[in-house]
Amino acid sequence: MAQPQRHSGYCNREVSHVHKCICVYLSIGRKEMKGKKGAAILTGMVNKEAVGCEAVIGSLTPSNTRKYKLRNRLVEDDRPLYGISYNFIDAKLFDLFATVGGNRVSVYQCLKEGRIVNLQSYVDNDKDESFYTVTWSCNLEGKPLLVAGGVNGVIRVIDVENEKIHKSIVGHGESINEIRTQMLKPQLVLSASKDESVRLWNVQTGICILIFAGAGGHRNEVLSVDFHPSDQYRIASCGMDNTVKIWSMKDFWCYVEQSFTWTDLPSKFPTKFVQFPLYIAKVHTNYVDCNRWLGDLILSKSVQNEMVIWEPIIKDQPPGEGSVDILQRYPVPDCDMWFIKFSCDFHYTAAAIGNREGKIFVWDLQSSPPVLITRLSQTPRSTIRQTAMSYDGKTILSCSDDGLICRWDLWDEATS
Questions:
Q1: How many domains, the chain?
Q2: Whether 61 and 178 share a structural domain
Q3: Which terms are listed as keywords in the entry (predicted)?
Q4: N or C terminus: which one in the chain shows less Cβ crowding within 10 Å?
Q5: Nearest in space to 352 (alpha carbons), one of 389, 378, 390
Q6: Contacts of 246 (CB under 8 A, 6+ apart)
Q7: Spatial separation of the C-alpha atoms in residues 375 and 107, rounded to whole Å
């Protein structure tokens, strides 16, 4: 890999109030652009029958229990921005966030009074690369890493402190739709791919530990994946086959531990296939493009203008069997395109999701029936691909197809 080209100095934490930006060029990718995300979907399948009481549906009348004010907006480029992510790994860096779009990965800082400054930008030498997803991680010393992937199927691991590429990891045969970090072990990340697989990686060593695919795997693109917040062995994935699958790594955990001490080439690591999930659910009748664990419950979103909280009821035998208890439904109008992803604050008290009309719906996840906290709008109207809620939920960020980044802050009219 070619050494990165440095264009200006690094903006460190002590002088971060000064607007400085660097551009570091990544090594080349090698695949062609795969086209735009998110055509409206019309086909569907039949739901698995739910058990328990009928799901409670939220009202679209905002409660306005919390009011947010648009404090800043900036256009990064004239290309769509597909991903935006706050740093929840390091408490000292909670005010940092990253965006991806086109062949660029950017790092920003949220300052007081609604200000946003660009700290770093990294640009891939392959102009046809289009990054779709970004997540924060760290190395074993706790230094921040950014992990990004997209159309080329290459995972870029960026050393943010030293402004250089830590690793470029190859393994997927198609584009990468989402990457998520294991909060219990931040060197572990999951990637969801168009090649119908989910992969577990150690970004410290560059090792592919496990591949979730095969006889019981997804039958179309995998669009989203997430680690269970407390059960280190359990993950959930979803995709274009309209299913949500829950997998266990318990029988393979020795390989996870081995990945931290492996000293040979990553290509020689005994990567294992996990072919059968613990559980398969068809909660939605169309593409499922975002899922997150809420304790042992799952919040998932399809292209059917809603998010759903449900409980997977898993049977021990045979693998994959079980039932679904749908608990609550959160309507999201004009959200019938795929690749529109929601976000939550660190404690999962609220969720923010955009739509194709440039609106954001902020839902209370701890109330029943569901309460719409507020509805936000940006102009000009453009599809909001992803939101990012801050650690405490007081700031909401969004990125959209027109390259716009918006910042809303919690607003107290009585004290402002």
A1: 2
A2: yes
A3: Repeat, Transcription, Transcription regulation, WD repeat
A4: C
A5: 389
A6: 234, 235, 236, 277, 278, 279, 280, 281, 312, 314
A7: 27
Q: Residue 226's closest CA among 196, 191, 184?
A: 191
| 13 pLDDT higher than 50 | no
Give the residue from 111, 138, 170 where a domain finishes: 170
Residues 8 and 107 reside in one and the same domain: yes
Longest CA–CA span in the chain (Å) reads 62
Q: What is the mean pLDDT of residues 340-364?
A: 98
Reply yes or no on whether the pLDDT at 3 is more than 50.
Answer: no
The set of residues, in sequence order, having a beta carbon less than 8 Å from that of 148 and lying 6+ positions away, is 83, 98, 100, 105, 131, 133, 134, 135, 155, 156, 158, 179
Instruction: Examine the domain organization and report whether 55 and 204 are in the same domain.
Output: yes
> Measured between alpha carbons, how far is 262 from 272 in angstroms, rounded to an integer?
15
Give the residue ranges of DSSP H helices in 62-180. none
Q: What is the pLDDT of residues 49-62, one digit of tens each?
A: 444 568 899 999 99
Distance from C-alpha of 299 to C-alpha of 225, rounded to nearest angstrom: 12
Q: Which helix (H) or strand (E) holds 259?
A: helix 253-261
Does any domain span residue 56? yes
Query: What is the DSSP-derived secondary structure letter of residue 128?
Result: T
Please give the residue that has the higher pLDDT: either 320 or 224: 224
